[in-house]
Amino acid sequence: MQMLNSHCGIDRDSRGVVRLTICNAGPLNIFGSAVINSVREGLQMLAGESGIRVLILAGQSEKSLIGGADIKEMATFDQAAAEKFISGFGDVCEAVRAFPAPVIARMPGWCLGGGLEVAAACDFRVAGHDAKFGMPEVRVGIPSVIHAALLPRLIGSGRARWLVMTAENIDAATALAWAWSMWLRRKAASMPRWRKRSIRC
Question: Going from the N-terminus, what domains does the chain have, and what CATH number goes with each?
Fold first, then answer.
């Protein structure tokens, strides 16, 4: 794996498939300010490469794609710092949406809060059999203000409201039934099949 910066590693294959792995962000890939800035920069760097046919966004561990924002860091914020943090997280989502090739979210384990919103910005979402999704920030009084607005178009208004307002989680089977994820990845060995499908022209 080649490191673009301290929190972004990339792997490439001969077909133009690039995997961007979020690194050094803890076992659940928690997004603090440094990780947010690095991932945004990594996406922007890769967006300038014309040979990429598919980008896979993944976490370093099998426990999570993105486990949400760093609540401990957020507890230290004043209003200006909070606004900067939220804007930065939103910039990551926009960098995903603007990426010139299809982006696939690889989602094992937990995908929570802002992580779910980053996944919503991707073109395709592949869930691990053990995946769980939710917006738990409402439990601690933090509204989902980054890119939760993308959810109604993906899973419907009622389901989006339920996720955002109740802070309850859904499992991989429910996510597939809701069309949140397009495929259910039952084991690591099945990954190359959907990767191959994603670049078939």
Answer: 2-198 (3.90.226.10)
